[in-house]
Amino acid sequence: MNTERILDIQGLRTHFFTDRGEIPAVDGIDLYVGKGEVLAVVGESGCGKSVTSLSVLKLVPQPPGKIIDGSILFKGDDLVPYSESRMRAIRGDAIAMIFQEPMTSLNPVFTIGQQMIETIRLHLRISKKGAKLRAVDMLKLVGIPRAEAIVNEYPHQLSGGMRQRVMIAMAISCDPELLIADEPTTALDVTIQAQILDLIRRLNKELGTAVMLITHDLGVVAEMCDRVVVMYAGKVIEEGDTRAIFHNPQHPYTKGLILSIPRMDDTRERLYSIPGNVPTLSKDMVGCRFAPRCEYVMDRCRVELPELEEIEPGHKCRCWLQQEEGKPL
User: Fold this and answer.
1) pLDDT tens for residues 182-239?
2) Residue 273 belongs to domain with CATH number
3) How far is CA 225 from the centre of its chain?
4) CA distance 213 to 49
5) Do the beta carbons of residue 80 and residue 70 sit within 8 Å?
6) Which pTM value belongs to this model?
7) Based on the structure, what is the number of domains in the chain?
8) Nearest 10 degrees: CA dihedral of 267, 270, 274, 279?
9) Within this chain, do residues 81 and 213 fall inside the same structural domain, yes or no?
């Protein structure tokens, strides 16, 4: 795998300023995506995954959100100080994003072709006829039948799976170097989910597109990702290659997530679930964010936040159990 970093996030803090105070949705995270690799960012709802992805493209609504610290290096250039006009040149071109719900991302009053052609012409500077031909080619590439007819249809005329394929076709129409997929299979049935994920995997292999996959589905991660970043309450709490994370999880939260995966050979009557809930975020939080839910909690965990430390080459963990006790889970 190419170790050159196409995206390198350092010390990113994205906070929301609300009536109940300042909320550190992303609280000082470091992560990177290598050229041509598939990185998974996993965790429960509310852990900061989607805000991280929106921060990369500077799509966090402002107000109430704001990037208050850190850098987002794309091919060595920091995107944080970029103006809106400079970001528009990057969005959909060098970096593209697939959003959770295609029905809210596609404009209902324009045809599929009109929306795709606008995106293609904005970045590739080609004729309207050339853009329409490329739109049809992209729809065929993502496995949409009757592509020549689909370009003249409206989003409501398509199924959820077809709309998601259209979103992917739009995202790759300008050959992005980085594709951010935020829960790309949400609300799709299992068969369509498998097809969408197979499509993203094929784009990665055939076009060399780096992928940052935001998900809570660890089954998907095991099947198609090279590395995993586990987030909890705005922090990265474990990071490593996929095999290490699944076969040797070091953080109690990661262990709990893996135990929650359904297995065909499982004889338990009920699936395992991590007790408790993700905490309400605030600037006043102390100690390890996972401490109230952790079966291994120690006194130090409640008052002091551990650093993200490398426990073996390429495998990092934020846990006092490892750093103080050196105990395997």
Assistant:
1) 888 776 777 777 888 888 888 888 888 999 999 888 888 888 899 999 999 999 999 9
2) 3.40.50.300
3) 12
4) 10
5) yes
6) 0.89
7) 2
8) 160
9) yes
